Structure formats: C-alpha cells, structure tokens
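Action item from last meeting closed. Structure (207 res):
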C-alpha cells in the first residue's frame, strides 16, 4: 500500500513538472520549481477538472520537458534493442499516455499537494545530468515523501528522464513490470497490455 501511495505521489509531483518555453539560462532547479506552479495555476483555474480540454492544455506544456522515448527505452530495458521502429513508437506513445492518464486521475484527489524543491542540484556526467531533490506534502500527512527528478541537458534544454520516490526508481519499477509482460506475450503483448490500460474509462471530472 505504501508503494502504491508513493507511486501516486510521484504522478502528482512528477507531472507537476510541466513547462513553457524556457530560456537557455534556466537551470534544472528553476525548471522544477517554477514550472510546477504553471500546472498548479491551470488546475486552480479549472477547479481540478479532468476534462479533455484541461488534459490538452497541460500536455502542450508537459511533453516538451519529458523525454518519453528515453524513459520508455530505459523501462523496456534489454528488450528495447529487439523492438522494431514501429514497436518503439507504439511503446513510447502508450507509455506516455499511461503516465499522463494516471496523473490526471490522481491529481483529482491530490491536487493540493505541495512540492518543495531543494535549491542545489547534484550534477553528474560533466554537468550534463542533474538530480533535483525535493519532497511533497500530501494533505495532512506528517511526513513528506522524498522525490528525486533526474534530468539531462540537450540542445533543447533540460529534460526529465527518470523520477525516484523514496529511493524507488520509476524506470526500474516499470522495467520489472514490463519484463513480466514481455515474457508472457512478447513486445506486442506489452503494447496490447498498455493499450488495454489506456482504453479503460477515465475518472470523471469533479465539480
């Protein structure tokens, strides 16, 4: 139960990292802290509604700041090299949809979560990668949940490619789940499994 709660908190806080077009000088900490307020403003404006219009508004600023292809490749792991170009595209699209859908349904319950970002990122790989540490307070919880965002720098700015909740890596968690699906039905079986989850009804919007 604690793990499931932590994953839900990730989807609240992780998807708070939506972004607008940012300057070349923006650092990963600024990206995490400032852009979290953008989506918060959207949700406040729309009163937490989980509608197609709200999802589209957030997606338009979310997608450029996450490298879903890299996240998917890491989650699929060793099987990624075996995938055809068509399978890679399908996997990335479905995984992106899964994370986005889960975020919106979770935000209906936890949209008042507060994200506290540490000011100094931990740099690695000659400054090309950064880990931004933060914590999230959900409701009246006594203890915050620790969350690390892992980003890398590209010509298009910083992009998130992994998130860890209380030390549990999102990529690793999904890699274990995906491996089970692939062992049962191959890569196409995993794609179909993701499609089935994404085809499930969404949580109704709240007034």
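Sequence:
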């Amino acid at each position: 139960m604690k793990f499931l709660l932590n994953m839900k908190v990730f989807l609240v806080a992780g998807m708070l990292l939506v972004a607008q077009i940012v300057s070349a000088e923006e650092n990963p900490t600024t990206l995490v802290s400032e852009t979290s307020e953008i989506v918060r403003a959207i949700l406040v404006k729309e009163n937490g509604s989980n509608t197609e219009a709200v999802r589209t508004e957030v997606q338009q600023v979310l997608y450029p700041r996450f490298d879903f292809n890299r996240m998917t490749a890491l989650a699929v792991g060793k099987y990624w090299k075996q995938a055809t170009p068509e399978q890679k595209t399908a996997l990335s699209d479905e995984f992106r949809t899964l994370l986005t859908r889960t975020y919106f349904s979770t935000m209906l319950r936890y949209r008042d979560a507060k994200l506290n970002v540490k000011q100094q990122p931990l740099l690695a790989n000659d400054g090309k990668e950064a880990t931004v540490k933060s914590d999230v307070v959900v409701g009246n919880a006594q203890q915050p949940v620790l969350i690390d965002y892992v980003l890398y720098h590209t010509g298009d700015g910083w992009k998130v490619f992994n998130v860890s909740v209380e030390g549990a890596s999102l990529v690793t968690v999904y890699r274990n789940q995906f491996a089970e699906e692939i062992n049962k039905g191959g890569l196409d079986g995993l794609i179909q499994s993701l499609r089935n989850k994404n085809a499930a009804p969404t949580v109704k919007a709240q007034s």
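Note appended to the action item: The CA atoms of residues 136 and 189 lie 35 Å apart.
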